[in-house]
Amino acid sequence: GPGKARLKKDTGKKSYLDKVADGIINVTQRFRYAILTGVLIVTALAIFIGSGVVVDNNSIAFFKKDAPIIQRINEMKESLAGSNMFYLRVTASEGDFKKPENLQYIEDLRDFMDSRGWFDKTITFNDYIKLINREMNEGDPAFFTIPDSEPAIDEYLLFLESEEVEQYVTPEFDDLVILVRHNIYSAADLKTILEE
After folding, report:
1. What does the alpha-carbon distance between residue 93 and residue 183 come to, in Å, rounded to a whole number?
2. DSSP annotation of 178
3. Who contacts 153 (Cβ-Cβ below 8 Å, separation ≥6)?
4. Coil, strand or helix: which one is 186?
5. Where are the alpha helices (DSSP H) in the chain?
6. What is the spatial distance between Cα 88 and Cα 118, in angstroms, rounded to a whole number?
7. I need a surface site. Which of 42, 97, 134, 176 has the fewest CB within 10 A?
8. 157, 151 in Cβ contact below 8 A?
9. Is 159 helix (H, G, I), strand (E, B) or coil?
10. What is the rounded distance in angstroms from the CA atom of residue 91 to the CA atom of residue 20?
11. How many angstroms separate the CA atoms of 163 and 176, rounded?
12. For residues 141 and 165, what is the distance between their CA atoms, to the nearest angstrom?
């Protein structure tokens, strides 16, 4: 027939774990106010000390300023535009980034960033349009600007392959990105700059 479960008789003896658990319960009941006060003090200290912690991913900061790797990075900064980059996205309505006034807004934004000296280089769809505008005017540097009319921009787009500009503007001309190259290694510093 089926096996029967055997019940263990209670001998009244407590196991080692039972004794430890009873001891912990007795201590916490006897000293509950002292324990609560200690936990509150430790929590307050953790909050106070933790509020001064800055989270950052700047691995370069771990090296001394005269370390060979830092010297090489500084040499690279002088000859190359930013080893780090991010994209700044500007969203509008369909066709808005064929309009000269909107492209001029992007130029003004770039001029503002350049005037602050935060970043090494910015690249955007405007660069292509300005380059074609200059070349259509016999290479005159005075024409390295956004043309005044939307038909001129439409005409200049005929000279561009879609693959060239799709990384900077959508085919609907409603989203535009500015590629920003920089040598800021600290996420905290970059966040401060972007908040400004």
Report:
1. 33
2. E
3. 98, 99, 100, 103, 129, 146, 147
4. coil
5. 16-30, 32-50, 68-79, 100-116, 125-136, 150-157, 162-165, 187-195
6. 14
7. 42
8. no
9. coil
10. 64
11. 14
12. 22
Nearest to 189 by CA among 58, 5, 44, 51: 58
Query: By the 8 A CB rule, do 64 and 70 touch?
Result: yes
CB atoms within 10 A of CB 177: 19
For the stretch 92-142, pLDDT in tens is: 999 999 999 999 999 999 888 888 888 888 889 999 999 999 999 999 999
Give the confidence band of 150 by pLDDT, cuts at 50, 70, 90: very high
Residue type, 124: T
> How does the average pLDDT of the chain come out, rounded?
84
**How many whole angstroms separate alpha carbon 1 and alpha carbon 7?**
18
Residue 153 burial (10 A CB sphere; 0-12, 13-18, 19+):
buried
Q: What is the pTM of this model?
A: 0.62
- CA 194-195-196 angle, to 5 degrees, is 90
Q: Are 157 and 150 in contact (CB under 8 A)?
A: no
